[in-house]
């Protein structure tokens, strides 16, 4: 193995440098993963440009997969050269949430890409318990999507979507698009809504025949018409928009559910009309954070992997850019400044 590697290292707010750093040293239960692809998540933008990580320097990036190329001394030797996705959350396994497998609420967790070094690099150190093995025949690049796919699965299951329901998904970024695909897989009719016509067209190509471009059409009127005036059973707010948050109460039926997953960039104001609707309709507002990965009664990452493998969840249509590691900051600026059309941007070190 080489002694050094290339990485995009955050030295301070808006100070991301492409440079040589030491290849991580492994503990007894760690593996070294050679990165195939790492997605730039919307949460990486404020992390790099505005708020910083938990310490400097840090290598960001938490949506990644690759090949296991080196093992700690106590790791199963069969793991070597396996293609893997990586669960970036490392729970403490000692707090009360961890005792019941509620790892997203761990009180002392570590996280690759924000609290520890992540995937904007040639190699990353990962505990062997955080590996998800990718079967032969599945494009290793797709492993980079398992984290957002698992997040979206948690969103849909956490809000109890069931067969025959009407669901609206606002915001067709990667998470919103996966939420829409999962809701459809759960048997719901999905109104997939975005201001960007190109994203709406992708949603239609993925089977969302009721996709709506809200910059050209009246989403509320269309939904009311197609639901005979009743509205929808659930709304997923994946845009991080105060306007959308308030509009959701217009289209939710009595005892409907509002699932919040988008993170607003500014303060969000709830109008008196929306608050009144929440009371009168007895609407449930529920937040969702991160993903599940306990083993019992099911492992959400295994379900996500199976859905990816059998085509229930599709990722290829949403990849707009594949960029070399040296251009990581450029990719972040494309997303932040919207200087060109984009959907999902993947950082692939092998392109350097």
Could you say what the CATH topology of the largest domain is called? Answer: Quinone Oxidoreductase, Chain A, domain 1
Overall pLDDT score: 96
> Looking at the structure, what is the overall shape?
globular
Q: Which CATH-level-2 architecture of the largest domain?
A: Alpha-Beta Complex
Low-confidence stretches: none
Topology pattern, helix = H, strand = E: EEEHEEEHEEEHEHEHEHEHEHEHEHE
Number of domains: 2
Largest β-sheet summary: 7 strands, mixed
Q: Class of the largest domain in CATH?
A: Alpha Beta
Strand content: 25-35%
User: Can you count the beta strands?
Assistant: 17
Number of helices: 10
| SSE class | alpha/beta
What's the Cα radius of gyration?
20 Å
| Percent in helix | 25-40%
Give a short synopsis of this structure.
With 352 residues, the protein is α/β, with parallel strands linked by helices. Helix content is 27%, strand content 26%. Helix 5 links the parallel strand 11 (189-194) and strand 12.
């Amino acid at each position: 193995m080489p002694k050094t590697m290339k990485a995009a290292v955050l030295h301070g707010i808006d100070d991301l440098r492409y440079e040589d750093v030491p290849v991580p040293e492994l503990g007894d239960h760690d593996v070294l993963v050679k990165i195939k692809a790492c997605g730039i998540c919307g949460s990486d933008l404020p992390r790099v440009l505005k708020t910083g990580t938990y310490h400097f320097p840090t290598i960001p990036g938490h949506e990644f997969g690759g090949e296991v190329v080196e093992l700690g001394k106590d790791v199963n030797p069969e793991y070597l050269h396996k293609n893997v996705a990586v669960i970036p959350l490392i729970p403490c396994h000692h707090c009360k949430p961890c005792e019941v497998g509620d790892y997203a609420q761990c009180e002392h967790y570590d996280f690759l890409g924000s609290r520890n070094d992540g995937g904007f690099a040639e190699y990353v150190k990962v505990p062997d318990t955080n590996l998800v093995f990718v079967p032969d025949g599945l494009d290793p690049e797709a492993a980079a999507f398992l984290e957002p796919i698992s997040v979206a699965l948690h969103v849909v299951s956490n809000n109890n979507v069931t067969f025959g329901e009407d669901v609206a998904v606002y915001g067709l970024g990667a998470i919103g698009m996966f939420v829409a695909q999962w809701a459809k897989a759960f048997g719901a009719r999905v109104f997939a809504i975005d201001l960007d016509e190109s994203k709406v067209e992708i949603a239609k190509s993925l089977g969302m025949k009721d996709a709506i471009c809200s910059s050209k059409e009246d989403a509320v009127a269309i939904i009311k018409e197609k639901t005979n005036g009743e509205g929808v059973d659930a709304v997923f707010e994946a845009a991080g928009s105060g306007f959308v948050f308030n509009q959701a109460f217009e289209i939710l039926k009595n005892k409907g559910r509002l699932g919040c997953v988008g993170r607003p960039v500014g303060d969000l104001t709830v109008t008196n009309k929306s608050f009144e609707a929440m009371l009168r309709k007895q609407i449930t507002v529920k937040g969702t954070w991160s993903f599940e990965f306990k083993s019992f009664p099911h492992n959400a990452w295994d379900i996500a992997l199976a859905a990816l493998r059998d085509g229930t969840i599709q990722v290829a249509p949403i990849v707009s850019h594949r960029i070399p590691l040296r251009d990581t900051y450029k990719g972040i600026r494309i997303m932040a400044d919207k200087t060109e059309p984009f959907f999902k941007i993947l950082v692939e070190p092998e392109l350097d």
